[in-house]
Amino acid sequence: MLHLLYRRGNAKTLILLIMLLSGPVLAGQTLPEKQHMIGIRGGYAINGVHFNPNRKQSSVPSFMNASLLYTYYHDLWGTMPYFGLQTGLTYTQQGYETPDLKRVYEVIRIPLTSQFHIDFWKMRILINLGCFGSYRMSAVDVSPEYPGGQEVVFDCNHIYIDYGIQAGAGLALVFHPVEFHIEANYLYSLSMIENPALYSNEYYTYGYPNQLLFTLGVFIHL
User: Which domains are seen in the chain, by residue range?
Assistant: First the structure.
């Protein structure tokens, strides 16, 4: 029947049928109470930069990742009980390594994440989709010439403001009023890390940071 409706182009009829079938289910569903949480999160990250053209770069690991986060679980439009928003403040790093040097940036980040959650027993399945804004505060170069590291002098060729998208998943153990979260998130910057003409005015080099982040978190219900 649905196949015939689709072939005839009766989209309005199909939508009406779906609403009629799903209406009783939504009407009988009990929406959870709104929930506020605050917590801390930290973990291990694999940082990299995608350069075009390739600079034979490799990733840089980092344990310097810490967040203070606020989470708000609530229903969406009175029908979807699995919605949530998360934001806060994160201290993290970005970086890459080439045959010539390793560069590590110190970064402050503000995430804005839609955290969908499916609750069962004393657990939650977490699905994260969102964006972020960051500020690159400083950077250090490690090279054969400077094995102890040398601070990078920021100028117009270095881009301070960073922003991008993120997605991930996780699992939560809920022992009211405390939750323990384990998550994996991938973040990709839409802001270049430096001026593409930094190395050549004829052949531009475009570099976009990325981060694969594994974290453990502890959250308290407010």
Answer: 1-30 (no CATH), 33-221 (2.40.160.20)
